[in-house]
Design brief:
Keywords: Membrane, Transmembrane, Transmembrane helix. This is Transmembrane protein. This protein is about 15% helix and about 45% strand. With about 210 residues, it is an alpha+beta fold. Among the domains are: about 70 residues, Outer Surface Protein A, domain 3 (Alpha-Beta Complex), CATH 3.90.930; about 70 residues, Outer Surface Protein A, domain 3, CATH 3.90.930.1. The radius of gyration is 38 Å and the shape is elongated.
Length: about 210
């Protein structure tokens, strides 16, 4: 018969082997969890997020960005400043024209870039009063136009080219009347016309009688 000491020693060896097997199994299990955590996960459903409005807020709860789509076909991205005020817009209106706008902290738009009818871009810079003082555009007929306006929004200097590329410069008084024009015709003929307050005209070259 085995002594009591021998039987206790055998039990201790078996318990030690059992602990080693348990720790090994636990180690492989943790390793397996680590590998699973690092394995890239395929997004379910293609990773698409569907929403009609998305708002991002900062740590203070102030809105910093808004992405929305409206029922009328309009949609856009609005960026807000540190006080939550909208300052920039990138959007598409209901007619399908894309536009980019920049505004003051009070919401007054100062600059706008718009594309009309898929082929007519226009850039406008505005005063705080809301009137354009500078604009440049390409019209659907192929003509181009640059305008400088006064404080009331009236164009006072107009530089443009017609659909054939013939250029012209026009200076206008505060009533909208043309006072000076410098042109080059489609046939490359230059002309200069000056109109005085009394209606007197100066033309160059002088028309042939």
């Amino acid at each position: 018969m085995e002594s009591l000491d021998s039987r206790v020693e055998q039990l201790e060896r078996r318990a030690h082997r059992s602990r080693l097997v348990s720790f090994a199994a636990l180690g492989f299990g943790v390793l397996g969890l680590g590998v699973a955590a690092w394995r890239p996960v395929e997004p379910a459903g293609g990773g698409e997020l569907v929403a009609s409005r998305l708002t991002l807020r900062d740590a203070r709860g102030l809105t910093r960005m808004t992405l929305s789509a409206q029922e009328g076909g309009e949609g856009g991205l609005v960026l807000h400043d540190a006080e939550g005020r909208p300052r920039a817009l990138l959007g598409v209106d209901s007619g399908g024209s894309p536009r980019l706008r920049f505004a003051t902290a009070e919401g007054v738009m100062l600059a706008e870039l718009t594309v009309y009818a898929n082929e007519a871009p226009r850039l406008a810079l505005r005063q705080l009063g809301g009137t354009d003082f500078f604009s440049v555009s390409l019209l659907p007929d192929g003509s181009s136009r640059l305008e400088l306006a006064d404080g009331s929004g009236r164009p006072r200097a107009i530089l443009g080219a017609d659909a054939q590329g013939a250029p012209g410069l026009f200076l206008v008084d505060n009533k909208g009347g043309s006072r000076a024009s410098l042109r080059v015709s489609p046939g490359d003929e230059p002309s200069l016309v000056l109109e005085g307050l009394a209606g007197t005209l100066f033309r160059a070259p002088v028309p042939v009688q």
